[in-house]
Amino acid sequence: MAEPNQVIFFNGGEGYRISHPVAGGDACLDVKVGEEVLSELAPKEQLRSGSGVSFKRQRRRIDARAQALVALLRYSLGRGIAEPLEAETLTLTLIRRSLGERTSHGAAGTYGREKLVDRAKLVLSSDLARRWTLGEVAREVGVSPVYLTQVFQQVEAMPLYRYQLRLRLARALDLLGSHHDLTALGLELGFSSHSHFSSSFKQAYGRTPAEFQRSLRLR
Question: What residue ranges do the domains of the chain occupy?
Answer without folding.
Answer: 6-105
